[in-house]
Structure formats: structure tokens, C-alpha cells
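Entry 14. Structure prediction run on the chain below.
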Amino acid sequence: MSETTTNPKAASRRREPAARGGRPRRRKLTFDRVSFFIAFLGVPLAVFVTFVLYPFAQAIFWAMTDWAGYSQDYNFVGLENFTELFQDEIFLKALRNVALLAAVVPFVTLSLALGVAVAITLGGPSKGPVRGIGAASFYRIISFFPYVVPAIIVGLIWAQMFDPNAGLLNGILTKLGLDFEEFSWLGKKSTAMPSVMFVFIWGLVGFYAVLFIAAIKGVPAELYEAARIDGAGRFRMTLSVTLPTIRDTVQTAYIYLGIAALDAFVFVQALLPQGGPDNSTLTISQDLYITAFTKGKFGYATAMGVVLAVVTLVFAALVFAVNRLTGGGEEKKQKAPARGALPAGAEGGAQ
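Output returned:
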């Protein structure tokens, strides 16, 4: 009858048992661990507190004062600026305008960008492996070109295009037999905001198209091949394969574009620096700029900035919530084996 001997060296290499409650024992704080935490956690945290949290706290403080901006004298007025803001018809109009921009611009821009990306990456031959159309690199460059041009230049170019007397847009429409001679696109309340939205979308759709192209390139080709074998067409593959796979990219793009739409200073300032007819295109950032640097009411303008920051956070939270409620961000949770537990069947191997 053979006897099983236990090697003391092998036994000494076994993992130490966890502490009571199944929690692993704390490791000792060595110089290497402390320096690692300082370099990779402490420094970024210090930079974040210094350049993000501290300025935001300062903004909240100045928003509760009547500071004029060009002197050291100010009085603490508490929430008076915020109370006055929500009784200010001009500010409320600007708030409604940015809410409209945040509702329309991200949806239309990302829909067009996704359409361009899908056409370039999946619009190839219907037979054989799934691949994009020919000359895809050329189309990527063309679609990305408007984003390369600075936003202020884009706004100034389109301001000239919309000119009622010498604008290229009216000239083309008139040559086509349409009655658009001396039509003021930016001077009418009914067309000013749609014109601003068009310029906004035109300037940004190319960037997000390239972003979605890169995301779609990362989708495993086997998924498209399986969908094609099941008889799915291009539209069905887009809904069932592409969108669920790049969902996180779409969510991130929606948040970034929504923040840009809520700010919307450069494009609107280049097109309509005074806020358009009857303030129909006035944004919060424009109202803030006019209040601070024209009226000299920096405390009141800072309160506008704080409200804009809160609105931006609410918008981001809504996007996350909608994505979560519609099934995004769900991960399959697998029960991990207990720490230090032996694999199944290992107990009998030492007999």
C-alpha cells in the first residue's frame, strides 16, 4: 500500500487563507506602492481639484455676489442672482433656445453621421464578405474636411452664404427659378434658428462620421457574416448588429455633442452676434458674454455659467439614464470562484 507524502516546500507555496469574512488580507504599504499611488492617483487628483473643482467652487461663490469684474469691491447677495435669473425673460428665452439645440442637433447630426459611416463601411457588394464601398478613404476625407476648418471660419463663411443681397445660397435658388431674391435667412425669426442648426450640423457631422467608422471597423466580421447567412439586409444588420455593438460610442458622442450644443457660442456668435431677431437664436453663453463684458455684471453672468453647468450635468445624466433604461450598459455577471478556492476535482487529487 503506497503512502502519499507531502512536500513541505510545495505546501509553503500555497496561497495564504483569506481573512475572516472572505476578504483578502491587506498588503503592507511599501515605498513602491506608496510612490505608485502618489504618481498615478495623487497627481491627477491634485490637478483635477486645482483646475476643475476649485474654479467651480469659486464660480459658485462669485455667483452669489454683485461683483462688477473690474474692482475688488463686491457685496454678498446670496441667491438673489439666481432668483433674478429665473425672472429674466431674456435668459429664459436663451435657456429655451439651448434646450432646442440640445434636442435637435445631436439627434440629427449623429443620425447623418451614422448613415454615412454605415454606407462607407457596409455599403459594398451584396455578395461575398462584408466590406465597404470603393474609395472609402476619399469619402472619409471629404466628410471630415468641414471639421478641420475652425468653427469661427465656418460661421463667417455661412454668414456670407446667407447674405440676402450677395449670398451664394439665394443666388443659386434664384437661378433655379425659386423666389428667394433678397430673402433674409438670418433676419427672419422663422428661419434664423434652423439656419444656425444647419451650420452646426454641417460643421460637425464629418467628425462623428469618422468616429463611427472607426467604431464599426472594430465590430467582428463574424457577426456580419452570421447576419448575412440568416438573410439580413444592410438595414437589418445596422439595427441588429452595428448599433448594439457601438452603443457606448454613440452614447459618448451624444453627450459630447449635446454639451457643444448647449454651449453653442462660436457658431452662433459668428452668424448672429446679437442673438438674432427677437432673441430667437440667443444662447446662454452669448447672454453671459453680453452681461459680463457689456453690462459689467460679472456676478450675475457667473450665475448664468453655474446654471449652464447644472443644465449640462442634467443632460449627461439623462443620456446615461435613457441608455440604461433601454438596455445599455448591462454586463453579464458571472459568479467568480471564492478567492483561494481549489478548482473542481482538485480536492480528490491529493489523496
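The chain has 14 helices and no strands.
Filed with the rest of this week's runs.
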